[in-house]
Design brief:
Layout lengths: L2 E7 L3 E8 L2 E9 L3 H15 L7 E7 L16 E3 L2 H13 L4 E6 L3 E7 L2 E8 L3 H12 L4 H8 L9 E2 H5 L11 E3 L10 H23 L7 E5 L8 H12 L2 E3 L7 H8 L8 E2 L2
Helix pairs in contact: 2-8, 3-6, 4-6, 6-7
Length: 281
C-alpha cells in the first residue's frame, strides 16, 4: 500500500497528514488566501519535507468545509475522494486518543460535537463559540488579531480580575460548587483589569462554554470520554481548564497528541488499515 494523504481543507488553514501502511508519517499545516492555493501548497510542502514522490501516493482523501470548493477531478493524476467532515472528526478523534468510543469535540473557528464509536460517527450538535470567538473579541477589546500574540498575552493574565466566581457570591463552598468555579464570565471586570487579564478571560470563556456543552451532550449518554481536537485544543490554557471539568463532572476530558490534525487524520484513516495508528519509526 502506498502513501495515503488526508487533507482537512478549512476556511483559513489547511492541515495534511500522511499514512504509510497505517503508520503516521507526519503532519503539516498551511495558511493561504484561498483553499486551492493552501491545498496544493500543503501537498507540495509535505511531500518535499518527507522526501516522498508523487508516484508513492496512492490516494488523497479530502474533508473539511473547503473541500466543497474542489471538484471531483484527480489531483496530480492521483485517485482523490472526499470523506464527510463529521465522520472524519469522529474517526480522527478516536484514532488519536486510542478510544473505542467518545464524544469528539472539534474546536476550530466554531465547535462541532460528534458522538463516535465502532459503528461510526454522528453529529450531535455544534456551537458558534470557538476560535473565531477568541479572534473576534480580542480584535474589538484588545486590538489584537494574531492568535499567537493573544495567547502570549493571556499567559500572564489573572482570571480573578475578570471572572466572578462562586466564592465571590457565597463566600464559601457549597455542595458540588467549589468556590473557584466561574459563576459569570467577565462578571467582575473593571477598569483595573489588564489586557492580559482580558485575553485570558476570553480564552477561558470559550473553553468553559465548550466544556459545559460537552457535559450537556453526554447527560443522558453512557459515554464517559471526551476527546478534544482542533487547533484550540493545543492552546496552553486548555489543559488546566478541561482538567477541572474532569474533576468536577467525572467525565474524562482528553487532549491527544496532534489534536489539531484529528480531522485530516480521520480522512486518511478512512482509506487506511489498520484503524488504530502507530508512529512510523
Amino acid at each position: 500500500m502506498g502513501v495515503v494523504l488526508g487533507i482537512d481543507v478549512g476556511g483559513s488553514t489547511t492541515k495534511i497528514v500522511g499514512l504509510r501502511d497505517g503508520a503516521l508519517m507526519g503532519v503539516l499545516q498551511v495558511r493561504a488566501g484561498d483553499q486551492m492555493t493552501a491545498l496544493f501548497g500543503a501537498i507540495g510542502n509535505f511531500l518535499r519535507e518527507r522526501s516522498v514522490s508523487l508516484g508513492d501516493v496512492s490516494e488523497i482523501i479530502l474533508t473539511g468545509v473547503g473541500a466543497s470548493f474542489i471538484g471531483p477531478e484527480l489531483i496530480y493524476g492521483i485517485r482523490t475522494r472526499k470523506v464527510n467532515e463529521f465522520q472524519a472528526i469522529g474517526q480522527g478523534g478516536l484514532s488519536l486518543s486510542g478510544l473505542d468510543e467518545a464524544l469528539v469535540v472539534s474546536m476550530g473557528t466554531g465547535t462541532a460535537f460528534v458522538r463516535a464509536g465502532l459503528d461510526g460517527a454522528v453529529r450531535v450538535g455544534g456551537s458558534g463559540v470557538g476560535g473565531g470567538t477568541v479572534l473576534g473579541l480580542a480584535s474589538q477589546m484588545l486590538g489584537k488579531s494574531d492568535i499567537n500574540a493573544i495567547l502570549a498575552m493571556a499567559e500572564s493574565g489573572k482570571p480573578g480580575n475578570i471572572d466572578l466566581t462562586v466564592g465571590d457570591i457565597t463566600g464559601c463552598d457549597i455542595p458540588s460548587l467549589p468556590s473557584e468555579l466561574t459563576a459569570a464570565n467577565f462578571g467582575k471586570i473593571s477598569s483595573m483589569a489588564s489586557e492580559a487579564d482580558i485575553a485570558l478571560g476570553i480564552v477561558n470563556m470559550v473553553f468553559e462554554t465548550v466544556g459545559m456543552l460537552a457535559v450537556f451532550a453526554l447527560r443522558n449518554d453512557s459515554i464517559r470520554d471526551v476527546a478534544l481536537t482542533g487547533t484550540l485544543a493545543t492552546f496552553p490554557q486548555a489543559g488546566a481548564v478541561f482538567s477541572k471539568f474532569t474533576s468536577l463532572t467525572g467525565l474524562n476530558f482528553v487532549i491527544p497528541e496532534n489534536a489539531a490534525f484529528a480531522t485530516a487524520l480521520g480522512a486518511a484513516v478512512a482509506a487506511a488499515s489498520p484503524p488504530k495508528l502507530r508512529e512510523e519509526s
